[in-house]
Amino acid sequence: MDSFRRGDLVFDVRDAGPADGEPVVLLHGFPQDSGAFDRLSPVLHSAGLRTLAPDQRGYSPGARPAGRAAYRLREAADDVLALLQAAGLESAHVVGHDWGGIVGWALAAWHPWRVRTLTALSVPHPAAMAQALGHSDQALRSAYVGFFQLPAAPEAVLLAGGGTGLRRMLRRSGLPEALVDRYVERMREPGALTAALNWYRALPLAGRDPVGRVRVPTLHVWGAQDTFLGRAATEATRQFVAAPYALEVLEDVDHWLPELAAERVGELVTAHVRTSD
């Protein structure tokens, strides 16, 4: 399966690994795509796991609807349900990084019977994040989020000079140069950056779709050098999981866990998946 459809939208997806393996859905964040898991997926395949890694809405050229409402968290979560249906799966293990992690938290809270286990890479539970914004340095770390919600200005700043602004942001966060080049080129596709930023512009609509407690086995992996996400929200996440929960802190790793810590993350995900056997 190299694509699936939800209504008029067509999503690109990488379906790889043993066809009869336990299915693991891999959800990327900003400004990545399914290629973020190029190093992680083989680790999972070697453990006998099947991976399904979609380019999420806004990132698949055939799935770039207009307007911020189309990028509400509920829509992104329903995209994953459509992927499961297209793959003939009742449920799957879910691994999400960055925005993909937020989608994973929502899926596990809203559709626990469809999520065998959840692994959230970098991103804490949304309610823990909201808590941390009020009593830690998280508001400063997240200052860019407010800027990303503005109309037109973020595109102008990030894409000026062939993407100089976006390149600078990604380099400063620890992403290697080759990956910076790849992601910036993807964001320079017509409409791609606006669609990706619409995930942020939909945040004021999030009150319609609160993410409650998660009741599936959950692993949270956080890099202690993360520029964007601090310790306060990470440590507060446990209270929002009413199921077996584990936190793994990778002390020398920054935000880009799938790309920079693929072997270790793969080992952790595999062990977590096996807990549901």
Question: Outline of this structure?
Answer:
The chain has 277 residues and is of the alpha/beta class.
Offer a few descriptive terms.
277 residues, alpha/beta, 12 helices, Rossmann fold, globular
Structural description of this entry:
This protein has 277 residues and is of the alpha/beta class. It has a single domain (3-274), classed as Rossmann fold (3-Layer(aba) Sandwich), CATH 3.40.50. 42% of the residues lie in helices and 18% in strands. It is built from 12 helices and 8 strands. Strands 1-2-4-3-5-6-7-8 form an 8-stranded mixed beta sheet. β1 (3-6) and β2 form a beta hairpin. α7 (153-172) packs antiparallel against α8. The longest helix has 20 residues, at 153-172. It is globular, with a radius of gyration of 17 Å. The chain starts with a strand and ends with a helix. The mean pLDDT is 96.
Shape call: globular
Average pLDDT works out at 96
Strand content: 15-25%
Main pleated-sheet profile:
8 strands, mixed
Radius of gyration: 17 Å
Task: Determine and state the CATH class.
Answer: Alpha Beta
CATH homologous superfamily?
A: Alpha/Beta hydrolase fold, catalytic domain
Domain count: the total is 1
Oligomer: single chain
**Main β-sheet, spatial strand arrangement:** 1-2-4-3-5-6-7-8
Could you say what the CATH architecture is?
A: 3-Layer(aba) Sandwich
Give the helix/strand class. Answer: alpha/beta
Q: What ranges have pLDDT less than 50 throughout 5 or more consecutive residues?
A: none
Number of strands: 8
Helical run tally: 12
CATH topology: Rossmann fold
H/E topology pattern: EEEHEHEHEHHHHHHEHEHH
First-residue to last-residue Cα separation: 26 Å
